[in-house]
Design brief:
With 212 residues, this protein is of the alpha+beta class. It has six helices and ten strands, in the order αααααββαββββββββ. Helix 2 crosses helix 4.
Length: 212
């Protein structure tokens, strides 16, 4: 083999990225055929192919769950802080504006405390609305499902936390629609806190005026 032949062989050796595109089917049929015809599959290249295929098999049998949306949001906020575009956290307190149980009382329905379907609460701040549905999960625990209605364009994923009897219950799996949920909330809890990293909203009596 001449030196020119060796140079041609080395230049035809595919890169790792080209191998990956070929194995994962990102090439058209014509491009794949041309790649296979023009590439040199030496021992090192064969080892790379085997490694990529093995890694793909492992990935299919051991799927990695996607991180919650709050992780991406926090990474973006960290990037902005690093570049000097940080914003101070705004603290707000929400006020109860609506409790669906009040409508039941006004309608003259007795025993409304025992309704299993749950009830709805609406809280407001100067800039946000907080909608909460409350469902009984036990004699002294509740499940809450809610949504924060906020300012267009703001960070929309919220972390929800309640503190009770020296321990915190936190959920970080809210979505980009501002929705959140929390299980096993004690009926005696005083405050629920919502935070998106820019705004923190404290919701006093998050289960309504009389949750017990």
């Amino acid at each position: 083999m001449t030196s020119d032949d060796r140079r041609d062989t080395q230049s035809d050796k595919p890169t790792f990225g080209q191998l990956l595109d070929w194995i994962e089917g990102r090439l058209t049929r014509e491009a794949a055929a041309r790649f296979e015809q023009q590439s040199t599959f030496d021992e090192e290249t064969q080892a790379s192919i085997a490694w990529i295929k093995g890694f793909r098999r492992f990935g299919r049998s051991h799927p990695i769950p996607a991180p919650p949306p709050i992780v991406k949001q926090r990474l973006m906020q960290a990037f902005e802080r690093h570049h000097g575009r940080d914003q101070p956290v705004v603290l707000q307190t929400a006020n109860l504006m609506f409790d669906s149980r009040d409508d039941v009382v006004m309608a003259g329905v007795r025993g409304f405390e025992e309704i299993d379907e749950g009830y709805q609460l609406t809280f407001t701040t100067e800039t946000h609305g907080v909608l909460i549905d409350v469902f009984a999960t036990g004699e002294s625990t509740r499940r809450i499902e809610g949504q924060v209605l906020g300012v267009e364009g703001e960070d929309s994923v919220w972390v929800v936390t309640v503190d009770h009897a020296g321990r915190s219950i936190t959920d970080i799996h809210g979505d980009t629609n501002g929705s959140f949920s929390l299980d096993d909330v004690p009926t005696t809890v005083d405050t629920l806190q919502l935070s998106n990293g820019r705004t923190t909203i404290n919701v006093p009596q998050p289960l309504g005026r009389s949750a017990e």
